[in-house]
Amino acid sequence: MFGSKEKKIGNLIKRKKWDILNKKYLYADTDTRLLLAKECGNSMDPGVNTILVALFRDPDENVQLESVRAMAKTGKDHEVSQLQWLLSNTPDDKEELKYAIQSAISNIRGKK
């Protein structure tokens, strides 16, 4: 069952069904949101970045971390400001997340 949800999300991303992804998966349980972030990271479609930016504000730190890692792969220059916002609003005790955000910013800026 877990694999089928992953496949469904991946297919919706491939078909660019952003409305369905937003309505059905963006506010689902934590495991589903984590899967959504991972699957977005497997796509090079810039449409996934809107979903990833929304996941930056997720209450679960693991979902935030996975969305930042995915953004490091898919992000473009204009998403750097969102990452910078997240960095400035992340407490200092969340070192792994802060490091991932800094790495994502470096990766995106280095894609030129």
In brief:
With 112 residues, the chain is mainly alpha-helical. The chain has helices at residues 2-14, 18-25, 30-41, 48-56, 61-74, 80-88, 95-109.
Fold and architecture overview:
The protein is an all-alpha fold. The protein has one domain (2-109). The protein contains seven helices and no strands. The chain starts with a helix and ends with a helix.
What number of domains?
1
User: What share of the residues lie within helices?
Assistant: over 70%
Q: Any low-confidence stretches, pLDDT <50, length ≥5?
A: none
- The chain-level structural class is mainly alpha
How many strand elements? 0
Distance between the termini: 40 Å
Averaged pLDDT, please?
93
User: What's the main sheet like?
Assistant: none
Molecular shape: globular
Strand content: under 5%
Count of discrete alpha- or pi-helical segments spanning 4 or more residues? 7
Supply Rg: 13 Å
The H-and-E topology, N to C, reads as HHHHHHH
List keywords for this structure.
112 residues; mainly alpha; 0% strand
What's the layout of helices and strands?
Elements: H1 2-14, H2 18-25, H3 30-41, H4 48-56, H5 61-74, H6 80-88, H7 95-109
Helix pairs in contact: 1-3, 3-4, 3-5, 4-5, 5-7, 6-7
